[in-house]
Amino acid sequence: MSQPEWQERPYGGTPALPTADYVRFAVLGDSASCGVGDPTSHGWRGWARILSDAIAVDHHVSLCNLAVPGAVVADVRRKHLDDAVAHRPVVASLVVGLNDVLRSGWDPEQIREDLLHCAGALARHGALVVTVRFHDHTRVLGIPGPLARPLRRRIQTLNDIYDEVHEQYGALRLDLAADPAIYSRDLWSFDRLHPSELGHRWLARRVADLLTAEGLLFPAPSLTCTSAPLSRREQVRTLAIDVAPWLGRRIRDLAPRAAREAVHRTRGRLRLG
């Protein structure tokens, strides 16, 4: 029987770049980078903190986590980028955009401009930028076909933009779309919107693999979960207060556009027929 993709693996690797003794780490993004889905007695932890703690075993670390739940790409550029640059990061993660995908104000040209601007500013100030290629989140959420199809197209457009960021600025790229393990239920919290603790640890391990391949050597982040899961009562309360209203807003926001796109596709097929 094969072992899960996230089973503990021995640490090792050949450095490609000299290691940094003092690692300044800036994190820009939304709820996933903020740590939602990985609760502790001190608040949200998440993959960035788990990764930072692992790096701190062998290096001095300064973590500046500017990620905010609900953030869109424009928020990162206007509200968080200056603080990230001021932190003088050695490593900076730029993982944002799924909230843009889920809104009717979707503007891929503006998103492209904002992401390239953010990555460029970080790179010019000496940061090694870490970005992402997103998976099909509609599979995780179980979104029905009429809504899922336009969202998948948007995610692909967002991934194309991140590919351009990668090419222009030599960013490291966490390719979630290429790893089927991302669809494992164990990696997602009960709301399916955010990684579970194991999911955050898995993400920390994946980013750590990228950094160690670049020569920043440190022990791999642990995949052993330490927090107690939310009780059934806490899950129901969170679903009722936070998740259900959010999903309702997104469906109301996207349904009219999805319906228009379906009508246009149907008319096109009829004309071709």
Q: Can you give a write-up of this model?
A:
The strands form 2 sheets. Strands 4-1-5-6-7 form a 5-stranded parallel sheet, sandwiched between helices. Strands 2-3 form a two-stranded antiparallel sheet. The termini are far apart. It has a single domain (22-272), classed as SGNH hydrolase (Rossmann fold, 3-Layer(aba) Sandwich), CATH 3.40.50.1110. 50% of the residues lie in helices and 12% in strands. With 273 residues, it is α/β, with parallel strands linked by helices. It is built from 9 helices and 7 strands, in the order βαββαβαβααβααβαα.
Count of folded domains: 1
Structural class: alpha/beta
CATH uppermost class = Alpha Beta
Count of helical segments?
A: 9
Mean pLDDT figure:
83
Domain SGNH hydrolase-type esterase: 27-201
Protein name: SGNH/GDSL hydrolase family protein
Keywords: Hydrolase
GO molecular function: hydrolase activity
